[in-house]
Write a structure and sequence with these properties.
alpha+beta; Diaminopimelate Epimerase, Chain A, domain 1; 2 domains; 18-stranded mixed sheet
């Protein structure tokens, strides 16, 4: 394997050493899938991405995303972090619009003057609903701490998650996965990640607080999950969580594991469709060569 340029990026971060860590590799067209998986396992972040070429293909940049355990068709913070590298290092800031060609399809990304990067996610798919008592036992909370006004449901905008509404931040903070029960559950479900949320926040300027557990992908808790928050904002609009069919909110995540993150979420009901955008900032913290 020839030397590969790589970057370490903190995504959904307002400053260095926050948000979700991402490794981005350039010029990876000659690397096999097995080698990409080995590199992702070696890096051991929640995801590692590979830009196959600096040249566009069908109007977009070909990118593959790997967790430490397997390749995934879509993920949020890898989309934004990889786009940040393409925008600054390949396009040299000459265009504020680009497209990533992912396994899930083409994802458009836009950079705004305030330093935020936005991705449009595909239409949400609302799947199976689950009983509160079963999920409560898996996430280590009392069933009374789950907000029974809203369903526990599998939702996907490319990568499916269980969306679990909790009543308050006390329940959110104490959530802890029972791995035996968790793996038993996901044997028969499309979703593998569990997203819990509540309307109380650590920071007063934020609107919602989130935690995400993805042991299936080798990540016990994710600091910032763009795909999961995309599913969440679609869910919030569908069930009128804030009482309206169009929302623009600030979602915080990662506080419980020392990686405070901020995700900007927009969604709007348009007929039968829910249009979803997720935004955030990225900060490059390192650059080097993989030998």
């Amino acid at each position: 394997m020839s030397k590969l340029t790589y970057y370490i990026v903190d995504v959904f971060a307002e400053k260095k050493y926050a948000g979700n860590q991402l490794a981005v590799f350039r010029g990876a067209s000659e690397i096999s899938s097995d080698e990409m998986q080995n590199i992702a396992r070696e890096i051991n972040y929640s995801e590692t991405t590979f830009i196959l070429s600096d040249e566009q293909n069908n109007g977009g940049f070909d990118v593959r995303i790997f967790t430490p355990k397997e390749e995934v068709p879509f993920a949020g913070h890898p989309t934004l972090g990889t786009s940040h590298i393409i925008h600054s290092n390949i396009l040299q800031g000459k265009s504020n619009n680009l497209v990533l060609n992912l396994k899930v399809g083409q994802i458009p990304v836009t950079f705004t003057a305030d330093g935020y990067c936005w991705m449009k996610q595909i239409q949400p798919i609302f799947g199976q609903q689950h009983k509160a008592d079963i999920i409560a036992s898996i996430i280590g909370v009392d069933v009374s701490e789950i907000d029974e006004r809203f369903p526990i449901q599998e939702v996907s905008t490319g990568l499916p998650f269980f969306i679990v509404p909790l009543k308050n931040i006390t329940a959110l903070k104490k959530a802890k996965i029972d791995k035996e029960k968790y793996f038993a559950l996901i044997e028969n479900t499309v979703a593998k990640g569990i997203l819990v949320f509540c309307p109380e926040t650590h920071e007063p300027q934020n609107d919602i607080s989130v935690r995400v557990f993805v042991d299936y992908y080798g990540v016990p808790e994710d600091p910032a999950t763009g795909s999961g928050n995309g599913c969440l904002v679609g869910y919030l609009v569908k069930y009128r969580y804030f009482g309206k069919d169009s929302i623009n909110i600030r979602s915080e995540q990662g506080y419980e594991i020392g990686r405070p993150s901020l995700l900007l979420l927009k969604a709007e009901q348009s007929g039968e469709n829910i249009n979803i955008s997720v935004g955030g900032k990225s900060v490059v913290v390192a650059q080097g060569e993989f030998v």
